[in-house]
Specification:
Blueprint: H1 2-26, E1 30-31, H2 34-39, E2 43-46, E3 49-52, E4 55-63, H3 66-104, H4 111-156, H5 161-166, E5 169-175, E6 190-192, E7 198-206, E8 218-224, E9 234-240, E10 245-250, E11 256-258, E12 261-267, E13 272-277, E14 283-284, E15 287-291, E16 303-307, H6 309-317, H7 321-328
Antiparallel strand pairs: 1-13, 2-16, 3-10, 4-5, 4-9, 5-8, 6-7, 6-9, 7-8, 10-15, 11-12, 12-13, 14-15
Helix pairs in contact: 3-4
Length: 336
């Protein structure tokens, strides 16, 4: 169920990312008269250059540690069976060696007894090999499914396994959106729970595989137990990278949504505005951070609508007057 949730969210992001520029282009640039601008209370601000550490809004989900706990119990049971097999083999080896000595000493035991002791040793060796193979398979599965850190915890019973078993900690998987990458492992990101609470996370390790339907890497984190975040709860996780990136900050009031894509209206003339797609992978309470690059459509010094964006959006959705007139005009009758 949780993997399907990741898949749905990731597909939505992929569609929005690929269709972002197209969505903006489908909407017409808008030119309003001064009366409409004044009556609508449309206000613009100049974008300012800001600098911040790279940050990515990842998709988080509280995952069920039950399979990991069960796998740990299976590994412990396999270790116990291997220990028993090793003890049995040690005894069988001792018995086989004693039988061989007795047989060599003037045949103090029969050949059948010697063969029985040797056969017992072979059976014990086969049992030990089987128990060792079972343990190896379980440990390999732990590494493949959970990564080295959690596999070590499952194998030894070390932290954070005991915290997950007791319920004092919850396990969170955070997946980076499509097209994004991590220069380093963020060790102390913040997560937002559905009730708006900001919770600190603690890095466990990189996940060994991407979540189903998510192309970006996934990370495992620990979170203190939250009543508002049971297993399966989606979280928004802010991952911070290293270094400094220059860009502009788009206020939330400037953003409107069209077909799942965030848009802002850039002022292109005294009363003219053009829709521009806004990437949403780096979001904070202050707005959406857009890094400045060679192909960036939003740059410092440009003006965007921060009040009345919905009114401008409505105007850009409406067909131009000429189109309305053409649609209303009946076609000429060619029967004459």
């Amino acid at each position: 169920m949780y993997r399907n949730l990741f898949k749905c969210v990731a597909l939505a992001v992929a569609v929005a990312t690929m269709a972002g520029t197209a969505s903006a282009r489908q909407l017409a640039a808008v030119t309003l008269n001064a009366k409409a601008v004044s009556a609508g209370g449309i206000r613009t601000i100049a974008l300012q250059r800001v600098e911040q550490a790279p940050r990515i809004t990842a998709f988080g989900i509280v995952i069920d540690p039950g399979p990991l706990i069960t796998l740990s119990a299976q590994i412990a049971a396999a270790r116990g069976k291997l220990a028993a097999a090793q003890a049995t083999m040690a005894l069988a080896r001792s018995q086989a060696a004693r039988a061989a000595d007795l047989y060599k000493a003037q045949h103090n035991i029969s050949q059948a007894a010697l063969q029985a002791a040797q056969s017992g040793l072979q059976v014990a060796q086969a049992d030990q090999a089987s128990m060792q193979a079972q343990l190896n398979e379980l440990e390999a599965r732990a590494r493949t499914d959970w990564g080295a850190a959690l596999a070590a915890a499952a194998t030894t019973g070390a932290a954070p396994l005991s915290q997950l078993e007791s319920g004092t900690q919850q396990l969170v998987e955070a997946s980076v959106p499509l097209g994004e990458s991590l220069p380093a492992l963020p060790s102390d990101p913040d997560a937002s729970t559905p009730d708006g609470k900001c919770v600190a996370l603690r890095l466990v390790s990189r996940a060994p595989r991407a979540a189903t339907g998510v192309a970006g890497p996934s990370l495992y984190y620990l979170m203190g137990a939250q009543d508002s975040a049971p297993i399966g709860t989606p979280l928004m996780v802010v991952l911070r990278g290293q270094g400094i990136v220059a860009g502009v900050l788009i206020p939330p009031s400037a953003v409107v949504w069209h077909d799942g894509q965030a848009l802002a209206y850039r002022q292109t003339g005294a009363a003219s505005f053009a829709p521009i797609a806004v990437p949403t992978s780096s979001r904070s309470e202050q707005g959406y951070f857009v890094p400045v690059g060679a192909d960036t459509a939003l740059r410092p010094g440009q003006r965007i609508v921060v009040t009345g964006a919905a009114l401008v959006f409505s105007a850009s959705e409406s067909p131009p007057p000429a189109a309305k007139a053409k649609a209303a005009k009946p076609e000429d009758d060619d029967d004459d």
